[in-house]
TrEMBL record:
Keywords: DNA-binding. Residues 18-45 form the HTH tetR-type domain. Pfam families: TetR_N. InterPro entries: Homeodomain-like_sf, HTH_TetR. Gene3D superfamilies: Tetracycline Repressor, domain 2. SUPFAM superfamilies: Homeodomain-like. It comes from Pseudonocardia lutea. This is TetR/AcrR family transcriptional regulator.
């Protein structure tokens, strides 16, 4: 069956082509600088409003792109968190530093898999970074606050290990954003094939940031802010 809006063979094929085109363009230029019309043209659509037809607007397309990758990442992170909780239960999770490192690993590795998925993975990683680095970060399309989601679970498991001031000052979100921006930057690097060292160091860096001491100056400034 031919779709009269796009001229392609089936509805499923049309939507897939648009998402494929969006990922490739976002991988090259980021999600903020590509128009829906460009995506339609790159997908081979005959009608310039094809992307609007299928996704309504840019936010709808970005949500569809995120949803395309999210199940794989969610499943992988839940598996790692299952392993972490099993280690807690049998007493092999180690001290607080080891636990923080294990949770940093559970944050980084599921998304790092996208580095090995070509333009599709790179387009996803750059889109996530773009959402988190907006003047007002957008987490809703990423499902970070969805009940039963892996990030909500990760945050809950991590909270008892952090300084209470670090929790209040959004240390966990800052580390999530750091990790996603670093992954997006790595995805832009030409010719990189072996990501093992990069990913291992990123886990180490995330663990270091999560466990970093809250300075007395930071505590004082926070108290002053609360008094105002």
């Amino acid at each position: 069956m031919t779709d009269t809006v796009t001229g392609t063979d089936t509805k499923v094929d049309t939507r897939t082509r648009l998402l494929d085109a969006a990922e490739a363009l976002f991988a090259e230029r980021g999600s903020e600088s590509v128009s829906l019309r460009e995506i339609g043209r790159a997908a081979g659509a005959r009608n310039v409003i094809a992307a609007q037809y299928w996704f309504t607007d840019r936010d709808g397309l970005i949500k569809a792109l995120i949803d395309r990758h999210r199940p794989e990442i969610e499943a992988a992170r839940h598996d790692l968190l299952d392993g972490y909780e099993a280690a807690l239960a049998d007493g092999t999770a180690g001290d607080a530093d080891a636990r923080i490192h294990a949770l940093a690993d559970a944050l980084v590795r599921p998304s790092a898999v996208k580095l090995d998925q070509g333009a599709s993975g790179a387009g996803y990683l750059r889109t996530v970074a773009d959402l988190l680095t907006r003047p007002e970060p957008q987490t809703e399309p990423l499902g970070y606050d969805v009940e039963g989601g892996s990030i909500l679970r990760w945050r809950a498991l991590l909270e008892p290990l952090l300084d209470p001031d670090a929790v209040v000052l959004h240390r966990r979100f800052h580390v999530i954003r750091f990790v996603d921006v670093e992954l997006a930057q790595r995805a832009r690097a030409p010719g990189r094939r072996d990501h093992r060292l990069f990913v291992s160091q990123l886990v180490d860096s995330a663990a270091g940031l999560l466990g970093a001491r809250v300075s007395e100056e930071t505590r004082r400034l926070r108290a002053e802010r609360n008094e105002r």
